[in-house]
Amino acid sequence: MTSITRLRIRDLNDRPVSGAGEYVLYWMVTARRTRFNFALQHAVRRSLELGRPLLVLESLRCDYPWASERFHRFILQGMADNRIRFGRAGVAYYPYVERKPGEGKGLLAALASRACCVVTDDFPCFMIPAMTAAGAKQAPVRMEAVDGNGLLPIHEAGKPFPTAYAFRRFLQRDLPSHLEEFPEPDPLAGYSSLVEPDLPDRVLARWPMAGQDLLACRPEAFRTVDVDRSVPAVGLPGGERAAGDLMNRFVRERLEGYDTGRNDTAVHGSSGLSPYLHFGQISSHQICTALFAFEGWSPGDLSDSVAGKRQGWWGMSVAAEAFLDQLVTWRELGFNNCVYLKGYDRYESLPGWALTTLAKHASDPRGKVYSLEQFERAATDDPLWNAAQRQLLHEGRIHNYMRMLWGKKILHWSEEPREALRIMIELNNRYALDGRDPNSYSGIFWVLGRHDRAWGPERPIFGKIRYMTSENTARKMDVKPYLARFGGP
């Protein structure tokens, strides 16, 4: 079992590893997968070192912010996949799903009290840092958080980067040393879990494991879970298997032309992998492994240049490099900001020039102002914007280019910039399968100037913020197919 660089492991408390514990507990919270998973790999290593079996706890609260049928179903489908995989590997798997708020309180502490140590996932966004910190206080043994978020360890940079260009230059200098540090494709391969942990009846009675009916989202079982039913599930299936199938189809069938197709509303040019990345059902390491194999690439093909250019550094096809710029540069820039930019999700975290120009134009007259409810219902006078919002409502995503326009028009039609930010966060986090994520916060704040520069001419409402309109979008590309698909109610 390959060791993991210490840069990826953080002690969440100062308690010792207990040699008297009955098992190693892996509390799976964001890396909800069995492959290419640094945290699972570290938990397996701990199990082998200590000679104790591994117990995997994957739990699902029903009262997390924006909890809904849409997100729950996606996660539950992933848990069903994990149950099968851990079962085949002979690893004890404890799937727990709350039915009422607060029912799961005490489960982690009860399991940790019998553990040698606890391993969990390191994720710097949403409610996860507070949740794992609280868990570490409850655990009487050491709790370690393992970072498997991207190719670059999230705690290496030491500072936030203001632009993708600056971060790209840093990556081109520092990332090569980490390209030989990928997680094991299957950390469970050849692993024998020794004797399965004997969990007390009182624990199983108070916190019963989720049954097959619930993990399969059968209506009679799923109805017992108290989540928001006004945000229904979408057709996209969740889980590690679905993620892997989609990845393989993208690399084989749609990678070619990605550099131009991803921003064309008439073309299905994106990878579609962002929901699976957000819920940890696939990792960027797994995607890169497939891409590297398809391109016949090795680290020796890297350019020596650290000029921060989007093309030419990897030594791959134009389409592959365009995809890697999204998957690695932009995605990991979002994680960098969540770790190092104080208040990354607050208006005040915008760059100074953006705050200045938005304040200057905050009181500019708005020709139209819409409420959150009107935005939510796609009830504006702009058919193209309404189509983007309907796609979000019905599919849980917005086309890459349309998402930028969607945000810019919310800024244009809101009473003031802070209200625009509130509306974007609420709609994105409530409906988008890839919301509540570092990458989605990057996209939202980009609308208001983060990771961008001042633009001219200075305009009403926008000031020096980059300007976009539906009219210009319609001139750049054929939007008729998009309107035909999402233009109706």
From TrEMBL:
Its EC number is 4.1.99.3. One of its GO terms (molecular function) is deoxyribodipyrimidine photo-lyase activity. It catalyses: cyclobutadipyrimidine (in DNA) = 2 pyrimidine residues (in DNA). Its cofactor is FAD; (6R)-5,10-methylene-5,6,7,8-tetrahydrofolate. Keywords: DNA damage, DNA repair, DNA-binding, FAD, Flavoprotein, Lyase. Residues 22-154 form the Photolyase/cryptochrome alpha/beta domain. InterPro entries: Crypto/Photolyase_FAD-like_sf, Crypto/Photolyase_N_sf, DNA_photolyase_N, Photolyase_Class-2, Rossmann-like_a/b/a_fold. The keyword Endoplasmic reticulum does not apply. It comes from the Bacteria. One of its GO terms (biological process) is photoreactive repair. Belongs to the DNA photolyase class-2 family. This is Deoxyribodipyrimidine photo-lyase. It comes from Candidatus Polarisedimenticola svalbardensis. The lineage of its organism: Bacteria, Pseudomonadati, Acidobacteriota, Candidatus Polarisedimenticolia, Candidatus Polarisedimenticolales.
